[in-house]
Amino acid sequence: MKRPEHLAISSGRVTPRRAISIGIVGALHIAVIWALLNGITAKVQKYIPPTLIAHVVDVQQPKPQTVPPPPTLVKPTEPQVMPPPEIVVQTPPPPAAISAPPQQPATNPVPVNASAAGITSTHTTPPYPPNARRLGEQGQVLLKIMVTPQGSVSDAQVARSSGYPDLDQTAVDWVKSHWRYKPAMQNGVAIASTTQAIVKFDLKTAH
After folding, report:
1. 122 and 201 share a domain?
2. Is residue 37 part of a domain?
3. What value does the CA radius of gyration of the chain take, rounded to a whole number of Å?
4. Of 150, 145, 146, which is closest to residue 198 (Cα–Cα)?
5. What is the Cα–Cα distance from 179 to 117, expressed in whole angstroms?
6. How many structural domains are present in the chain?
7. pLDDT higher at 71 or 201
């Protein structure tokens, strides 16, 4: 059988013993809470300083920088203008008359004269060029001939062409290598001279 106090609890009614137990437990809780509160309050009061002392520190103001005075502008002095130098142009005296040097006797070849005569035995006709004979070319070549003081032909140039280069060149080569002259004389001295001669190419007399 169940005990009477168990029946009372199960039925929902509070017995005097249970009420005392509940009261004791509540008192213990209140005591613990009060002790905790008192301990925290003491610790907070311990860490809070009793008096706050403020110190005022003088902050030194930076000294104002001294601005140098503006430079004094000095007006430049005007340069002295030097007068231009006086230029004196002297007129040179007229040049003295230069006397012409005496003319020297001409050393260039003299024109054709009777003294520069050809030696007939040497004035032969050159052989007819075979190619010109085959083509039927003929004509006369007028040559300008330079004669040395020794009478040899130093040069020969075509003054008037025959119309055929082969005939002209044959005449020049032959005269330079075969013809001779009696040199021109001046004051009893043989000198260089120039003369002219005609070389004729004729198919009727060709050899």
Report:
1. yes
2. yes
3. 77
4. 145
5. 11
6. 2
7. 201
| Residue 40 resides in a domain | yes
- Considering Cα of 140, then 141, then 146, then 149, what sign does the dihedral take? negative
- Retrieve residue 187's tokens: 């004051």
Q: Between 57 and 139, where is the model more confident?
A: 139
pLDDT tens for each residue of 92-141:
565 555 555 455 444 455 444 445 678 888 999 999 999 999 999 999 99
Measured CA to CA, the distance from residue 30 to residue 28 in angstroms comes to 5
26 part of a folded domain: yes
Q: Is residue 160 a part of any domain in this protein?
A: yes
Opening angle at CA 62, ends 58 and 64, nearest 5: 140
Rounded CA separation 15/161 (Å): 176
CATH number at residue 153: 3.30.2420.10
pLDDT over 70 at 2, yes or no: no
Per-residue CA distances from 49 to 40, 44, 52, 194 (Å): 16, 10, 7, 147
- Please check whether residues 121 and 201 belong to one and the same domain: yes
What is the residue range of 174's domain?
117-205
- Residue pointed to by tokens 């509070």: 14
Number of H helices, E strands in the chain: 4, 7
CA dihedral for 147, 148, 153, 157, sign (positive or negative): negative
Strand 139-147 and strand 193-201: the pairing is antiparallel
